[in-house]
Amino acid sequence: MAEMIGELVALILMAVALGMDAFSVGLGMGMYQLRLRKIFQIGIMIGIFHVLMPLFGITAGKFLSEKFGTFATFIGGALLIVLGIQMIWSSLKKEEEKIITPIGFGLIFFALSVSLDSFSVGLSLGIFGARTMLVLICFGIMATIQTWAGLLLGRKVRHWIGCYSEALGGGILLAFGFKLITVFW
After folding, report:
1. What confidence tier does 139 reach under pLDDT thresholds 50, 70, 90?
2. Cα(41)–Cα(45) distance, rounded to whole angstroms?
3. CA-to-CA distance for 124 and 166, rounded, in angstroms?
4. In terms of domain of life, where is this protein from (predicted)?
5. In whole angstroms, what is the distance from residue 104 CA to residue 182 CA?
6. Which of 98, 120, 94, 124 is nearest to 109 (CA)?
7. pLDDT (tens digit, 9 = 90+) per residue, 80-111?
8. Confidence of residue 148 (pLDDT cuts 50, 70, 90)
9. Which domain holds residue 66?
10. Among 45, 77, 52, 32, which residue's Cα sits nearest to residue 179?
11. Phi, psi of 34 (to 5 degrees)
12. Is the dihedral of CA 128, 129, 131, 134 positive or negative?
């Protein structure tokens, strides 16, 4: 029993650490003018991806090398950079045309970019034989809660800084993407 509690505590801490990027990215994305219903949907979608990606990672962890996990982090960073640049670019334009928005395919793209690091962690956990259901529950719940917190805080900050909020949000995504890419090198 003590072993399972120890594993649960470790997984919760890992889920919080992985959810911090969902929080950070949610903070940036929350600076879009989002309704509460959309915030709810984004949190659920990111939670689902934080269940699917580690599941795929755990499954593949027995078969793939450590290099692939690092490559997944690089891809996630590149996707966040694209999202950040797009947000900054659209804040500088007068028109309301956006290339990527958290709707439809844009939401899936956004959730995937935030969840790729959980795939990498899933690879490691698959190699070490972690309890799959425990991992998925912890990762999914924490990512959802932290995404909602980031989106709601970003929504509040948007009202404080007005028209510059989207550029700031893009800057946050851009910085986080560069942070992930520098880990790759």
Report:
1. very high
2. 6
3. 35
4. Bacteria
5. 30
6. 98
7. 787 778 767 777 775 544 445 667 777 887 78
8. very high
9. 2-184
10. 77
11. -110, 140
12. positive
Read off the tokens for 85: 């640049």
Provide the number of structural domains found in the chain: 1
Q: What is the pTM of this model?
A: 0.69
* Buried-state track 54-66, b at ≥16 Cβ within 10 A, e below 16: bbbbbeebeebee
Residue scoring higher pLDDT (8 or 126): 8
Angle CA 68–82–88, to nearest 5: 150
**pLDDT tens across 61-86, in order?**
656 545 555 666 676 677 678 777 87
Give whole-number Cα distances, 129 to 68, 119, 134, 141, in Å: 18, 15, 12, 21
Q: Tokens for 11?
A: 């997984």
